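Our example copied in:
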Amino acid sequence: MTDDLVSALLDDARERMAKAVEATRHEFSTVRAGRASPNLLDRVSVDYYGTATPLKQLATINAPEPRMLTIQPFDKGSIKAIERGIQESDLGLTPNNDGSMIRLNLPELTEERRREMVKVARQLAEDGRVAIRNVRRDVLQDLRELKEDGEVGADDEHRAEGELQKVTDAHVGELDELLKVKEAEILEV
């Protein structure tokens, strides 16, 4: 019975930590590197008939060239709102509107801008680490409650804490590896 409780807690921790890593991986895809990616526009929201709507729900986004994104709206009437949403975003891009499609030319990143992007990526990685540590804290609290209630012995609790730390270290290591890859991608000229 006690092994079932402990293994259920550890499985829950693994699952939640994996979700934190996956969320950070997705956030990394929205950070601009050297080449165009439709994921850059994932954080852009557009005021569409009074409602903040994600851009990817209003248009098809493609990367026909390494330094260009094209945005083809489903509704031609929303093209001005999409253009305004891109200009108000933190991307620093100027949209070119030809009446039926918006083109975004991505200029070469300056060294200073690359350093700023690395800082953004490091902050996203730190947010992911915090999420992982929060999961660890919650599970440790649950283990201590089980021990206090007499459902788990001190030895079982200690073993579970060691296993939990290994799981935490593995997920933090995975995040660190993702960050190294993203930094290299950003700094690549």
